[in-house]
Write a structure and sequence with these properties.
109 residues; alpha/beta; three-stranded parallel sheet; two-stranded antiparallel ribbon; elongated
């Protein structure tokens, strides 16, 4: 099989020269409101994307507690408790749920 004919499977989606794999990046753009995050999933699915990616991080890993930017950084944290619900929302909308750790696992990094 030539490099141009390679085909990959991610979940139930195929990636090849004929099939792109489109990822909607929600990141942390939900204002810590789960309903907003769920609506992003639904809107992305209606646009025909294959996956929706969220950003998960711990403010402690980025900014010291006494740093002036701490409050702002904390406002972008996606609660890890949302993961099961976001996964279910993605399943319901037939899109793949992604976050950095899941991408690294897929790439075996």
């Amino acid at each position: 099989m030539s490099e141009a004919n390679l085909k990959y499977e991610v979940g139930n989606k195929s990636i090849s020269e004929q099939n792109a794999f489109v990822i909607a990046e929600v990141g942390s753009n939900h204002g810590q409101d789960y309903e907003v995050a769920a609506r992003y999933v639904s809107a992305a699915a209606m646009c025909g994307v294959d996956a929706v990616k969220f950003q998960f991080f711990d403010a402690d890993d980025l900014v010291p507690v006494d740093h002036p930017a701490r409050i702002e950084v904390e406002s972008y944290v996606t609660p890890v408790e949302w993961i099961p619900r976001l996964q279910e929302e993605c399943l319901k909308n037939d899109v793949i749920f992604l976050h950095l750790r899941s991408i690294l696992i897929c790439l075996k990094l």
